[in-house]
Amino acid sequence: MKVGIVGCGIAGGYLAYRLSKKHDVTVFEHKKKIGKKACSGLVSERLWDFIPKNNKLVNHRIKKIIIHFPKKDVELVMDPPMMILDHDKLDRYVASLGSAKILLDKHVTAVSEEGILRADGEEYNFDYIIGADGPMSVVRKSIHGTTPKFSLGVFVYDDKDKAKKSDVVETWPLNDGFAWKIPRGDKVEYGVMEDPKVAMKEFKKLYKKKPKEIFSSLIPQGLVTSHTKRIAVVGDAAGLTKPWSGGGIIWSLQSVDMLVNNFPNFDKYNRELKEFFEPRIITSKFASKLGVQLGNNLPWLTPNKVLFDSDWIF
Hints:
The chain is α/β, with parallel strands linked by helices. It has one domain (about 1-310): FAD/NAD(P)-binding domain (3-Layer(bba) Sandwich), CATH 3.50.50. It has helices at about 10-20, 85-95, 140, 200-205, 250-260, 265-295, and strands at about 1-5, 25-30, 40-45, 60-70, 75-85, 100-105, 110, 115-120, 120-125, 130, 150-160, 170-175, 175-185, 190-195, 215-220, 230-235, 305-310. Strands 3, 4, 5, 11, 12, 13, 14, 15 and 17 form a nine-stranded mixed β-sheet that branches. Helix 1 runs parallel beside helix 2 and helix 5 (about 250-260) runs antiparallel to helix 6. The longest helix is centred in the last third of the chain and has 32 residues, at about 265-295. The chain is globular.
């Protein structure tokens, strides 16, 4: 079968790797080079459950996270450990694993339920089309998928910060998100995830130096599924990010596995996606808000140290 994939980030590359073992796969990537820089690249070692292990991708390791509440600090000891990766190198590595045809600098403008994909004025015909094209997914829009709520991530790198070799991430809860300080081995990342209306304001409170370059990224929050027989979405295009952190790598890979295991039955894939993720999204949102409320208002009820799995829904 002929399969068209839109987007060659972590979800699109992994999907191409899995599907190209049995099918004729073509990937359309709008950038001239594979790789996503606008992402912290903080991921658990569960990553190796999905792709062949490659320690060359690992820049640094994190042992714990400190949450700074107004009157108390809480220590999260990471189990499994967390790794700091260059997301662009990870994307390129995953894309290199399969045998799919990858077309760079191809701007997809629309897809149809008949399996027609339009890119740069040309038409391509496929048996199935899958959108792995991020939060502003063209595929999702083409099939009239609902638009999820977005947070905005704003961050910078500071290569002069003395904390760059630390193995501790620091975070500060905000009204509708959080601020962070992540040591990356060769630099420190400062960032904020918040409502787009106030994200930059909160970022300026966190980082008071004049940055060399500011990075930003939309973070979808809310599951979106398609309702067509021949078109589906995965990863960020499906709104899959963790409510407590905004991270999406492991959730993206999990959604790809679900699609591949059910391929080409997209109805079954979408049902499984909703059955698995919806209750976990609701539960994790509630748990995150409860934790923040306890930490802010009832610090004596909040433990000093917690053994924490960043992908605890699995």
